[in-house]
Amino acid sequence: MHKTIPAIFAAILIIAAASEPLAQNSQRTFEIRAKRFEFIPAEITVKRGETVTLSLISEDVTHSLLIEGLGVNQTIVKGHATHVTFTPVKAGDFSGRCGRFCGSGHGSMRFVVHVTE
Asked: pTM for the whole thing?
């Protein structure tokens, strides 16, 4: 009887450890709208290790979303939802911008991904 208690305790620890990565690998989707000269929303917050899908929609002309620190470089064509998925591996603030010239206010099209622990 004394030998079964450590075995049960070990099984509980194994099950608890196996469930931990599932919580870190959850997936979220954000809808991001692009229009002259902004992204809406202009920033999002996600957790490190969380898989993130951005559903990108242009309301006027072709734009793109470039977030070099997260490996995102996606063209956004008017009238077509475009999806890009990434999983941040480190915490921090990652700046993005429109990578396709879209007019005189192009330089103000900024986007930020805040990655927390």
From this structure: 0.76
